[in-house]
Write a structure and sequence with these properties.
Radius of gyration: 16 Å
CATH class: Mainly Beta
Largest sheet: 6 strands, antiparallel
Number of strands: 9
Length: 151
């Protein structure tokens, strides 16, 4: 294999990777993830799927508490930052400190920013610059990607 073939292979592998190349402290094989998660969670968290809008029970959750990653239980969002965006998915105007990472996502012909759990790398949803003050951000998160712990 010559250098050109090696570079082409490396580039195509990087483009096909479903998650950015971050070092995560919680890791599992694909088979382990499938055993740990429900089929819906696996589709969203590990394959970057999405749930149908307005289908998550967490959409109407209003109690005080914390929203955690369904993959590794890392606290991600405080209920204090949750709001009704009208889009059909739980929305937040800010994550908890050091809870998320982002990467570019141009799937489906759209230029979006994908949101990942900083501990396990799971896909959570996307962030958009059309949220309310004080951040102006809308973290549009799949409810299946979250668990809720009331306080």
């Amino acid at each position: 294999m010559n250098r050109r073939h090696l570079l082409t292979l490396a580039a195509s592998t990087a483009l096909a990777a479903p998650f950015p190349a971050f070092a995560y402290t919680v890791t599992h094989t694909d088979a382990q993830w499938q055993k740990l998660l429900t089929p819906a969670q696996y589709n969203i968290l590990r394959q970057a799927g999405t749930e149908a809008p307005f289908s998550s029970p967490l959409l109407t959750e209003t109690r005080p508490g914390v929203y955690n990653c369904a993959g590794c239980a890392l606290p991600l969002f405080s209920a204090k930052t949750k709001y009704d965006s009208g889009e059909g998915w739980p929305s937040f105007w800010a994550p908890l400190p050091n809870a998320i990472q982002t990467s570019g996502d141009n799937s489906f012909g759209m230029d979006r920013t994908e949101v990942h759990c900083t501990r396990c790398g799971s896909h959570l949803g996307h962030v958009f610059p059309d949220g309310p003050p004080p951040t102006g951000q809308r973290y549009c998160i799949d409810g299946v990607a979250l668990t809720f712990k009331p306080t």
